[in-house]
Amino acid sequence: MKKKLFLIRHCQAEGQEADAPLTEKGYKQAFELASSLNNIRADQIISSPYLRARQTIDPYAKDRNLEIKIDTRLSERVLSTSNLPDWLDKLRNTFDDMDLKLEGGEASSEAQARIVEVVEEILDSNIENTVIVTHGNILSLLLRHYQDNFGFEQWKSLSNPDVFLMQFTNDEYSIHRVWKE
Predict the structure, then answer these.
(1) 15 CB contacts (<8 Å, ≥6 apart)?
(2) CB of 33 within 8 A of CB of 49?
(3) CA 63 – CA 35 distance, rounded (Å)
(4) What is the pLDDT of residues 94-147, one digit of tens each?
(5) How many CB atoms lie within 10 A of CB 162?
(6) Three-class SS state of 93
(7) Structure pTM?
């Protein structure tokens, strides 16, 4: 069976907190995203519980009369619970050492395992087309699972929003960035 997964990074948001809403520009992006997905048939939508992720896909879900299923495994990775002035350097280090765990945070390998689990459950199901809405770091870790060369620099090049298409046919897969800024 052929499976398609549309992996979406949320639109521009006002902050990093779980309840941070989209900015005014982010709301416009959400409607542009819905329009760009117009020709896509989704059987299900699964989203991070974070408000910005849900708001990103809401216009598309309403157009399609689809429920947005919430999955906490799609939540953004917590790098650390400490305030890190050099957080970007620390994040780079977690791409180099997937088991590096900062204070109160989650190792890249741990975060990667939970999002890969979501994908594996979809692949084991009878559902053909799934839209997944998540966050930049966790999305990068999923892409890295399938493409070893997806690292820190590729994470930095992601946009808000961003969309990748993963296609699976039997034991073969392909990944393509489909979002055009």
Answers:
(1) none
(2) no
(3) 9
(4) 999 999 999 999 999 999 999 999 999 999 999 999 999 999 999 999 999 999
(5) 19
(6) helix
(7) 0.96
